[in-house]
Write a structure and sequence with these properties.
This protein is an alpha/beta fold. About 30% of the residues lie in helices and about 20% in strands. The longest helix has 24 residues, at about 310-330. It is globular and about 70 Å long. The termini are far apart.
Length: about 475
């Protein structure tokens, strides 16, 4: 090549190999399951953690040119992971960049994007990776669903200029589909996973999953795909399932005909938190290592508050259901990841992930330490990235968060974040004031999913609305 220009500026690029930095005096919760330890140093070389150990031991072997940052006892946790985001339904580059900027300045170093317009998501993933814009790493899914799903207005939002269901990032699957070709097309988008969504039966879900795994790519699925049940999806080998309230369709007496004709949920059946059919499902998930992307606090958010007493009652019932089922999953030993599927208003200084973590502590019987494990190690596992992120250990990416106050004492202390280190690059919280003006947005702008609750499936939305929390459709 004759043109070897470096391209666009990358002011947020990862640290360069050979540039050694030491963060000493940390009180470290490393995410491995070990207790927090004081007087700990983290040595990073470029994007990677070289060593983690006692301050005095590390100090004996430091290179002379290492940059040293004294943390003076501040708390350090692994970079947080939001296991359920949507940043391009519909595509809105300024809004997406503002969301990503807030996330990384709030300690979020990676997200799972659960199927959007991958033409834009792919470029955002590249831009955050090389440092053209600030943001977490983005691991994203290409979607597969039955043909009946593709009159959903969101599928038109993410396929503008093309035919929904007939693009590599969003494919309609039938019995006649050549699955090796379909999976290869999805992989060609540089997707990290196949997302199985709606209107697919048990055998088709199993066939998609088997072919995806044969080609070396994981499967992320809705917890019920209609007509495929939760148990059938887990049996098929899905690596992660999303939305804990969808597990209420396990063992229902009514047929799971299609995504648009869901049976009513029998809330009373689950109120005691000991439903035997769900307990059997959780035992299977634990045995298979299936991760639950619970999105447990979603229904308690303003994004799904709705208007009027009927909407409020529905949101309250689903909030209680989510809390009870997530608590039961936790007691059963299921790995729970922390996803949101909505975002807080653009003027809010902190992302929705903080509310999800608080919900898990306050309503689901999880301790702050367990919730932080879910938001780090299990989040990495859900994204298929446990080998490079999720804990503060030698050999992994230099992704961690510095806090003034102890999050193990109170999960709300995440709001004391002062610094995010992502791939060795420092993102100072003081450089982000959380205002809409600071984010480059008009004050009235809202994040994905923060408008009114989703309408029934037979109601067509205007083409310009932002992404509604998907589980409500």
């Amino acid at each position: 090549m004759t043109d070897e220009t470096s391209g666009a500026p990358a002011p947020h690029a990862p640290a360069v190999k050979g540039s050694v930095a030491v963060y000493r005096g940390a009180t470290l919760f490393d995410g491995t399951g070990a207790p927090a330890r004081k007087s700990t140093s983290i040595v990073i070389d470029g994007q990677t953690i070289r060593a983690v150990g006692d301050d005095a031991v590390i100090a004996e072997n430091l290179p002379a040119d290492a940059r040293v940052f004294d943390l003076d006892g501040r708390f350090v946790i692994p970079g947080l992971i939001d296991a359920h985001q949507h940043i391009a339904t519909p595509p809105d580059r300024p809004l997406a960049e503002a969301v990503l900027r807030r996330l990384v300045h709030s300690g979020v170093t990676a997200i799972r994007d659960m199927a959007d317009d991958l033409r834009q998501v792919g470029d955002l993933a590249r831009a955050t990776l090389v440092g053209e814009i600030p943001g977490p790493d983005i691991r994203y899914a290409a979607l597969m669903a039955g043909p009946g799903f593709f009159d959903d207005p969101r599928t038109h939002q993410v396929s503008q200029g093309e035919t929904p269901g007939a693009v590599p990032w969003m494919q309609a699957i039938t019995k006649e589909t050549d699955l090796p070709i379909a999976v290869a097309l999805a992989r060609g988008t540089h997707a990290s996973a196949i997302k199985v969504y709606a209107d697919l039966d048990r055998d088709t879900v199993a066939a998609i999953t088997a072919e995806a795994h044969r080609q070396g790519i994981p499967v992320w699925a809705h917890a019920t795909v209609f007509p495929a049940s939760p148990g059938e999806i887990v049996e098929a080998g899905a690596d992660a399932v999303s939305h804990v309230t969808l597990l209420a369709f396990e063992g229902t007496d009514e047929p799971l005909t299609s995504y648009k004709t869901k049976p009513k949920v029998d809330y009373e059946r689950f109120a005691a938190g000991d439903d035997p059919r769900v307990e059997e499902l959780f035992a299977l998930m634990r045995q298979r290592g299936t991760v639950l992307d619970a999105t447990a606090g979603m229904w308690a958010s303003e994004a799904l508050a709705g208007e009027g007493p009927e909407d409020a009652a529905r949101a309250a019932a689903n909030t209680d259901l989510a809390a009870v089922l997530t608590a039961q999953a936790h007691r059963a030993g299921v790995d729970i990841a922390t996803g949101t599927d909505y975002e807080t208003d653009a003027g809010d200084p902190f992302p929705a992930l903080y509310d999800e973590l608080a919900f898990l502590v306050e309503r689901c019987g999880m301790s702050p330490a367990q919730v932080l494990r879910s938001a780090t190690l299990i989040g990495a596992r859900s994204a298929g990235a446990e080998d490079v992120m999720g804990t503060v250990e030698a050999g992994k990416l230099a992704n961690f968060v510095v806090l003034e106050d102890d999050p193990l004492r109170d999960i709300a202390n995440l709001r004391s974040v002062t610094l995010t280190v992502k791939r060795g690059r420092r993102f100072e919280r003081r450089d982000f004031d959380g205002s809409a003006a600071d984010a480059g947005l008009p004050a009235a702008a809202q994040g994905p999913g923060s408008e009114e609750p989703a309408a029934p499936a037979d109601v067509t939305r205007p083409a310009d609305v932002t992404h509604p929390a998907e589980e409500t459709r």
